Amino acid sequence: MTVKIKDVARRAGVSVTSVSRVLNGEKYVSEDILNRVNQAIEELNYSPSYIARSLKKQKTNTIGVIVPDLTSNFYSTILSSIEETASKYGYNLIVCNIAENLSKELKYLHIFQEMRVEGIIIMHEKTNEEIVNFIRNATMPILFSSVQSPDADFISVLIDDYQAAYDATEYLIRSGHTAISYLGGDLEDVTSGQNRYNGFRDALSKHHITIPEEYVKFGDYKLPSGHRLMGELLALAQPPTVVFAASDDMAVGALNCVLDQGFRVPEDVSIMGFDGSTITDIVRPSITSMQQPIYEMGQVSLENLHRLIIRDKHRPQADIMLQHQLVERESCKTMHPSNSR
Amino acid sequence: MTVKIKDVARRAGVSVTSVSRVLNGEKYVSEDILNRVNQAIEELNYSPSYIARSLKKQKTNTIGVIVPDLTSNFYSTILSSIEETASKYGYNLIVCNIAENLSKELKYLHIFQEMRVEGIIIMHEKTNEEIVNFIRNATMPILFSSVQSPDADFISVLIDDYQAAYDATEYLIRSGHTAISYLGGDLEDVTSGQNRYNGFRDALSKHHITIPEEYVKFGDYKLPSGHRLMGELLALAQPPTVVFAASDDMAVGALNCVLDQGFRVPEDVSIMGFDGSTITDIVRPSITSMQQPIYEMGQVSLENLHRLIIRDKHRPQADIMLQHQLVERESCKTMHPSNSR
């Protein structure tokens, strides 16, 4: 016997209209009615496929995505994954590249609203008061992907950047390196700037390793800044034995600088990246990198935005942390037999 | 003395409403009125900045872009350039990645129409009857970028792919190569498939060079196909001395295959790419490539779409061909002193 919408209404003790408003994901449904309807749906095992179908009619089926930089290998990979998952769920994807510009971000958020997109994924962390106001008052769910949301009310899908940088640094220490350099990102970015840098610093402290001040330099995540900063490191009287870059693009820039000066990687200097973008596998030597599960991150982001959109009972209530993983490739050498602890 | 709209109307012998309709870029203005108004604007030197301002009010200021594959370095570079130019003109850019899927393309074109975008840039060549019907009946200008439009009524901004491949092949011949291999794209694509392949073939014929059939192989423009096909070439009893790939990504795949098997580029085998994407400069050795002016292509595409949108008197009447250029990097060697003719 098929469960019908009126059965759900009866069980929940609300009107059919109320159930329908919940199913349609309308915003102004009281928390009480929402909970009763969702509980009734659960108890009666009301078919989600029917929900999906009934939802479809009044919807634009469109999701907007804010990307900070389309030329970055990291973002193009995560976008492909979001795109693929969106297709499975029947969503159209509208991508807006803000080129790191906050006033563009705000403008595109307003366009998304006018278009009545059903949800928004933001992959940019820097923000301002107007943007925070917009997302607080937005009529559709907003999810942050690969970055920390500015507000605890919003879900982020990301890795533990602090722990990942800590683990990467410990790996280098265990490989026998003590002259370790760090090429950081923008310290205004919490996730990829501060957290990664703090993880690096704390791992050094824990192992009682001190490094010269000039071993720590900050760029903009992009390839040319990695190349330039590596040039400064190579010009030191005592260059480091390994360079840990806060992005793979900076690691590739550093790699090329070393090769262009006639040195070898990893024989003369080791290099470690962060992100696990496809570029780490494309260059030679390939680059050892602290890998974010980029593909999974896109997929999980879209799936959970979908749950927020349909107000699924399993929709996320807190940030979703994915697992980082160190992927060893060719660019890091061990300084001595690995028996340091 | 400032020229006013009524001066334009008087000079053109039409009503102020007609001038205003022309200025607003409305579709159903007769060719006769359009010409008279545009001529009057020219003769009176009516301020284009005023036109721009008066246009602004009723417009969405949004442009839609159809991209076949966001993970390709070529498309992400051209998109950055379109984005940058769009910003200068005050347009918002909405990007849709169709992942080479024609039914997605059609769906996104309909979404663009519902959104009332002011113009569309399509960077995908394969098409079908429904898409051609859509673009013929579209209410906004559509411009093709980097590919040939399916219909002479639509403007394309592109290079002469045939001539570019011809010139690249002649360069290899002049460098003393006769054992030349070609890694092609999809022959269903006119621009990047057929035209490049025909340019290659004709340059060989002109120089009376014949190559074994197995020196010509076809992939999908992406890196893994270049790697795989290069493996097949290296397994031949007599491998080629140079490989000309129809995309830089395939060239990088071929490069990595050679390096991974312990051979050297260009000492053991030379490699030439096509497109001039940033990846040619990132890998080591860097890749000699027949370069499309990617950045200029994005800029010129957006500028001319803008001219079509505002029905500017200098709007394009025919395809715009940009200049290709061979950029010599490290991956091609000369077989003997260059005195072949």
UniProtKB/TrEMBL annotation, chains A, B:
Domain (HTH cro/C1-type) spans 6-51
* Domain called HTH lacI-type: residue spans: 3-57
Any one GO MF annotation of this record:
DNA binding
Is this entry keyworded ATP-binding? no
The answer to whether the entry has keyword Transcription regulation is yes
Q: Which Pfam families match?
A: LacI, Peripla_BP_1
**Protein name as it appears in the record:** LacI family DNA-binding transcriptional regulator
